[in-house]
Design goal:
By secondary structure, the protein is of the alpha+beta class. It has one domain. The chain is 44% helix and 10% strand. It contains 10 helices and 10 strands. The strands form 3 sheets. Strands 2-5-9-8-3-4 form a 6-stranded mixed sheet. Helix 8 runs antiparallel to helix 10. The protein is globular, with a radius of gyration of 18 Å. 53% of the residues are buried. It binds zinc ion (ZN). The site of zinc ion (ZN) has 9 residues, from strand 3, helix 5 and helix 7.
Length: 307
């Protein structure tokens, strides 16, 4: 994946440190989020419920201390200095540029395909812990989306340390962008009202939770379908110049790495579909590809699909 080397990048959609923690809700784990806590719990021999993985769909751990002002300020300075060209080499700038690309695509596609107006969620880059509208987020939780404050939370060290280092996902730029696009998928589900299914039917291979997660993967694919052809604001050329088939291969590698069966295998070595919250490696691969190939919200109807 290559961003074009010149032109404007709007950095206002991303903040270092993040928002305040007012109220409580249930965070929806990123492809990564919820299951990661479960993985950590399995590895450490802790009952996941102790970590606040309510029903396995997310977590709600209450309030906590936020990341240091110093780390928030350092991230903010990096964000402010980002350019489109830097998004090709720097993870933080890649998050900024991908956030804008997601806004460009969904601002066109959501109303066109569903009649609903799109509002952009805010992206927060943090380190350590952060107070959110869904309670305290920590790096260990992985990237997540909070429906209560409509914000996405991401500790960028997650990519190397956990996604690649622990789970065997790809270290490619496209892989990182897929993770962010998955979180934005949860935002689209919030706008459309579908996200509630993850709480009413929280686990099992064909549960509401799994359908919500697979749909977020499909929406990530939908974004990838349009990302290189959707104009930037002001009619400028698309932010993203290319998305090659090797790029898609790396996304598939990551989608498979964060499948529930793969994570269970890494943890206890025992595959138990009745405990799944995000779907198997094969399901996640399949639904990303479905969104990528079709580019339609309708093709991402995981709730009617036979799983
Ligand atoms: Zn998710």
């Amino acid at each position: 994946m290559t961003f074009r080397n010149s032109g404007n990048l709007d950095t206002s959609g991303v903040s270092g440190g993040g928002g305040g923690g007012r109220g409580r809700g249930v965070a929806i784990g990123g492809g990564v989020g919820g299951i990661l806590v479960v993985l950590v719990a399995v590895v450490l021999g802790v009952d996941p419920s102790q970590l606040g993985v309510g029903g396995g769909t997310g977590y709600d751990t209450g309030y906590g201390s936020t990341g240091t002002d110093a780390s928030a300020q350092a991230y903010q300075e990096q964000i402010d200095g980002c350019t489109l060209a830097a998004a090709n080499t720097d993870t933080i700038c890649r998050v900024v540029a991908t956030t804008e690309s997601l806004e460009d695509v969904w601002t066109v596609q959501l109303p066109e395909q569903t009649g609903m107006q799109y509002t952009q969620p805010h992206t927060n880059v943090f380190s350590g812990r952060i107070s959110t509208g869904c309670g305290q987020g920590t790096s260990e939780t992985g990237p997540f989306y909070c429906p209560s404050d409509n914000e996405v939370y991401l500790d960028p060290t997650f990519f190397d340390e956990v996604l690649v280092g622990q789970l065997g996902g790809s270290d490619s730029p496209a892989s990182q962008m897929y993770v962010l696009a998955h979180e934005f998928g949860h935002h689209v589900q919030t706008l459309l009202g579908d996200i509630r299914h993850s709480q009413t039917d929280p686990r099992g291979a064909s549960s509401g939770a799994v359908r919500v997660e697979l749909q977020a993967d499909c929406y990530a694919g939908l974004w990838a379908h349009y990302a290189t052809t959707t104009p930037a604001p002001g009619g400028e050329a698309p932010l993203l110049e290319s998305l090659t088939s090797p790029d898609v291969d790396t996304i598939v590698q990551t989608a498979e790495a964060i499948g529930d069966d793969h994570i269970q295998n890494l943890g206890s070595g025992r595959i138990d579909p009745s405990a799944w919250t995000h779907g198997s490696s094969e399901m996640r691969r399949q639904w990303f590809i479905t969104g990528y190939q079709n580019g339609s919200v309708r093709s991402c109807d995981t709730f009617s699909a036979q799983l």
